[in-house]
Structures are given as structure tokens and as C-alpha cells.
Write a structure and sequence with these properties.
InterPro entries: Aromatic_deC, PyrdxlP-dep_de-COase, Pyridoxal-P_BS. With 522 residues, the chain is of the alpha/beta class. It is built from 16 helices and 11 strands. It has a 7-stranded mixed sheet with strand order 1-7-6-5-4-2-3, sandwiched between helices. A 4-stranded antiparallel sheet has the order 8-9-11-10.
Length: 522
């Protein structure tokens, strides 16, 4: 029987593969990647913003199994060009106006490179002291830029931590609130606990409630109205709480919003806190998108009342030019997180942790290991400074106002809700042929009027849906939608790092062209 020839394999491998961290090869390949990305950004407007591929496309293009022998980076960089880029929806394109952007920057990218290059798992202070201490510093820096009360900062009695996403921030604070209440009232009350938000609150609140063991029937999405710009009413909150208490339930947690995903609605933090404190609720503020804008003095009033709440989070990866993932969470009482999330196995024991004089961030989050995310935020804050960061955001708001003005000049469209930051909600609004549409809207002409109004809204919804699908299929721009009080609305969110006035003007021309084509066919 012939033996297997391992010598050939060893020789082949050794002649084609260096150490995975060979310094010279690292330098050569690193330059290739940086050059590749620079070219990508230079050409990014040439790509369709929304990927045009069909499901399963990639399996047809790539090999069926892992290569047995090493391949040169040039070979698979070519595959990136040919096969990967076509499947990318280009979030960094200046013609990306969907969802909320994930902004980036040179400083953020370079900080991320360092984070990956050092590759530390800073779960506790001793595992890499600087990873903990830099995070503490930048969280206080950013908190001061936001003019947060000292009670949220390490310089006071609070503190901040960088999580991956808002879902993690909400889950950690909800678990802390849950355990705090269970310690006080007994573990038998877990099935009675109630979580509150508005019907505009991000679905991440409901996901966190599920994970935290809140009974699905005890999740409250309190109705908001267009007449109040979809903000959560303190009176509605109080009514919901009183009804739950009368039913023998236990109010636990309120998530208030500064800039909802649907419309950038602003909940009144102070009045909501006044209600919540009467019943012992933990109040968390989700400022994922708009929180970053509150470093600008002209937007800071949207956070008025934050001094009363228990916790606050924002996503620096949305509008603060820091790459994914970077969710900044501040809490007034870090011990509540630590009591719920801390574990201390023997293999992690050390003198620094035993002294209780250091922060071990593993006790502030769900996972044990954590990345050195503070580096990229530190790079961004130092590279641009508070003044330039404010001006970047103001430039986005300025071009959003331009788009808002263009929409307002075209009588085929309406702006659905007032603009707060850099997002416009708009739709085709057909001229009324009913004559008494205002009366129909006020339900003063009987069932027939309501039927006609419903038919008009249904027709408009279908047209707006067709319009958005047509725009996105063109590949020239990308937008998303929301449904508000049964009305289909198109969202136009400005925020890409590379966006300029010309991109917004072009986007409006695309909207008009496709609207003209659709309306002429209907």
C-alpha cells in the first residue's frame, strides 16, 4: 500500500506561506488594503447604492470549499471587486439616505485599525489597563460635550461604557432595573413586571424585554398621534401605569426617545420622568440617532429633563463619524449594572479587581470579552475636535433643509411631520376630488366621507410604495419608508460623511422623475 505523501504538502505550504504576522508581509498587504479602500471611496458614486443582486448569487460565484493551499491576497482582492462589491449596499455612499447612516471617517477607520491590530480582550482592568482607562476618559469627554449632568460621569458618581448596539444598552439597563426590583419586592413578581415605550419606540425595546424575561403581554407600546408629532404623552403614560397597577401588575421600565427611527420624534423627558418617579420606574433615554446632534447647543434642548433619568445611550456609529460598533451608554448608578452582570471566577481574580479601585467593564455588559472600541472614538474626538464635529452635523442639517424646501415647492407632495434634525418624512399627496376632504378628515360627513378618505389614502399608499420601489431599483439613491397612522411615508435621512448639496439636489430630481412617470401611468 502506498503511504500518503505529506512531504509534498509541507514543502508546498512552507514555500507559499509566511508567518501570519510577518512584519514585511503585513506592511505590503496593509498598503494594498488601504489603497483598495481609498479607490473604493473615490469611486463609490459609480456603484448602485442598493445592491442589485438576487438571493443566493454568491454561492454560484465562489468555490464550494476552503482552498487547500494559500492564495495570494491579490487573487482574492480581485474576487472582492468581482463578487463581493456587487453584493454590498453602499452605506458610505453620499447617495445613501435610508435608515440612519453608519458614518465613518479617516480617524475612525485608523482607530479601528489600531483596535484590531492590538487585538486585546480588555474584559477587566488588568487584562489591558489602558483599554479600560481610555474608555472611562472618552466617555467623560463625550458626556461633557453633551452637557450631561455630572451624576452621569466618572467625575461624579456615575459612569459610561461603550456597548456594541442600543439593544445591548437597553438590555443591560433593563436587567439592572429588573433585578433591583426583584431584590426589593421578591422574585415572584417577575411575571408581573411591565415595560413601557411609545408606538414609535424602536423594536429593540421589545427584543430586550423578551430576553429579560418580561411576559409578552406586559409590553406596552403606548399610542402616539400626529397632532403631537408622535411624542409620548405623559398623561397617556400615567393612564397606562395606573391601569396596570389596578390589574395587579408592577411598572418596571420606561424607554423614552430623543429622535425616533420613524420620524425623529422627541419625547418630553422631564414630564415623563415626573410621571415615572411617582411609580418607581427606571427611565432610559434612547438617543441612538439624535443624541450625537445634542453636542450642538442649538439641539441640546431636546435633552432637557435628562438630569432626572437613570440611563442614556447614543450610537456614535450613527452620526459621530465613528465606525460600527460604538454605542455609548451612561448610567447614574453603575452598581446596579454590576450587581446584575458581574461574575468573578477564580481564573479572573487579581489584586486590582479585589481592591475595588478599578473598573472591570466585563461587569457592565453581557459578554466577557470586549474590544478596545475607545481607540476609534478617541481618534475621532481628537482628530476633529468638538467644533468641527458640530459643523459636520450642521452641514447635514443644512442640506436636509434644502431637500425639505424642494419638497415643499412641489404641490404633488406633502411633508408629513416637522423636521427636527436631518431627516424628512414626505409622500405623494393626491389632490382631493372630494371637495370636502377637510370635513372628511374631521369625520363630519358620515360613513361615505370616511370611506372615500380611506380609498384616497389606500391609493396614495400604493403610489408611494411604487415610487419608493422604483427609486431604489434605479440604484441612483436609496431611501426607506415607515407607516404612520396607516399612511405610507418615505424617509429621507441625510448623514453620510461624503454627502454634499449636489447629492441632495440630484436625489430630489430622481424623486420627481419617478413620481412623474408613476403618476402619468396612474
Amino acid at each position: 500500500m502506498n503511504g500518503l505523501n505529506f512531504d509534498h504538502e509541507l514543502n508546498h505550504t512552507s514555500s507559499n506561506n509566511t508567518n501570519p504576522l510577518d512584519p514585511e508581509e503585513f506592511r505590503r498587504q496593509g498598503h494594498l488594503i488601504v489603497d483598495f479602500l481609498v479607490d473604493y471611496y473615490a469611486d463609490i458614486e459609480k456603484y448602485p447604492v442598493l445592491s442589485q443582486v438576487e438571493s443566493g448569487y454568491l454561492q454560484k460565484r465562489l468555490p464550494k470549499s476552503t482552498p487547500h493551499y494559500p492564495e495570494p491576497i491579490e487573487t482574492f482582492l480581485q474576487d472582492v471587486k468581482d463578487h463581493i462589491i456587487p453584493g454590498i449596499t453602499h452605506w458610505q455612499s453620499p447617495n445613501f439616505f435610508a435608515y440612519f447612516q453608519c458614518t465613518s471617517s479617516i480617524a475612525g477607520f485608523l482607530g479601528e485599525m489600531l483596535c484590531t491590530g492590538f487585538n486585546v480582550a480588555g474584559f477587566n482592568w488588568i487584562a489591558s489597563p489602558v483599554a479600560t482607562e481610555l474608555e472611562m476618559i472618552v466617555m467623560d469627554w463625550l458626556g461633557e460635550m453633551l452637557n450631561l449632568p455630572n451624576s452621569f460621569l466618572f467625575s461624579g458618581n456615575g459612569g459610561g461604557v461603550i456597548q456594541g448596539t442600543t439593544c445591548e444598552a437597553i438590555l443591560c439597563t433593563m436587567v439592572a432595573a429588573r433585578d433591583q426590583m426583584l431584590r426589593r419586592d421578591g422574585r415572584q413578581n417577575i411575571e408581573k413586571m411591565v415595560v413601557y415605550g411609545s408606538d414609535q419606540t424602536h423594536s429593540t425595546l421589545q427584543k430586550a424585554a423578551k430576553i429579560a424575561g418580561i411576559h409578552p403581554k406586559n409590553f406596552r407600546a403606548i399610542k402616539t398621534m400626529k397632532s403631537t408629532s408622535f411624542a409620548l404623552s405623559p398623561d397617556s403614560l400615567r393612564s397606562a401605569i395606573l391601569a396596570d397597577m389596578e390589574a395587579g401588575l408592577v411598572p418596571l421600565y420606561l424607554c423614552a426617545n430623543v429622535g425616533t427611527t420613524s420620524t425623529t420624534a422627541i419625547d418630553p423627558l422631564g414630564p415623563l420622568w415626573d410621571v415615572a418617579k411617582d411609580y418607581g420606574l427606571w427611565v432610559h433615554v434612547d438617543a441612538a440617532y439624535a443624541g450625537s446632534a445634542c453636542i450642538c447647543p442649538e439641539f441640546r434642548h431636546f435633552m432637557d429633563g435628562v438630569e432626572g433619568v437613570n440611563s442614556l445611550s447614543l450610537n456614535a456609529h450613527k452620526w459621530l463619524f465613528t465606525p460600527l460598533d460604538c454605542c455609548c451608554l451612561w448610567v447614574k448608578d453603575p452598581s446596579t449594572l454590576i450587581k446584575s452582570l458581574s461574575t468573578y471566577p477564580e481564573f479572573l481574580r487579581n489584586k486590582a479587581s479585589d481592591s475595588n479601585q478599578v473598573v472591570d467593564y466585563k461587569d457592565w455588559q453581557i459578554t466577557l470579552s470586549r474590544r478596545f472600541r475607545a481607540l476609534k472614538l478617541w481618534f475621532v474626538l481628537r482628530s476633529y475636535g468638538a467644533a468641527s464635529l458640530r459643523n459636520f452635523m450642521r452641514s447635514h442639517v443644512k442640506v436636509a433643509k434644502l431637500f425639505e424646501g424642494l419638497v415643499a415647492m412641489d404641490k404633488r407632495f406633502e411633508i408629513v411631520v416637522p423636521r427636527n434634525f436631518a431627516m424628512i418624512c414626505f409622500r405623494i399627496n393626491l389632490p382631493s376630488t372630494m371637495g370636502k376632504l377637510g370635513a372628511y378628515r374631521n369625520a363630519k360627513v358620515g360613513d361615505n366621507g370616511q370611506k372615500l378618505l380611506k380609498e384616497k389614502i389606500t391609493t396614495e399608499n400604493e403610489l408611494n410604495k411604487k415610487l419608493l420601489e422604483s427609486i431604489n431599483a434605479s440604484g441612483r439613491v436609496y431611501m426607506t419608508h415607515i407607516v404612520l397612522e396607516d399612511v405610507y411615508v418615505i424617509r429621507f435621512a441625510v448623514g453620510a460623511t461624503l454627502v454634499e448639496e449636489r447629492h441632495v439636489i440630484m436625489a430630489w430630481k430622481v424623486v420627481q422623475e419617478h413620481a412623474t412617470a408613476i403618476l402619468s401611468n396612474n
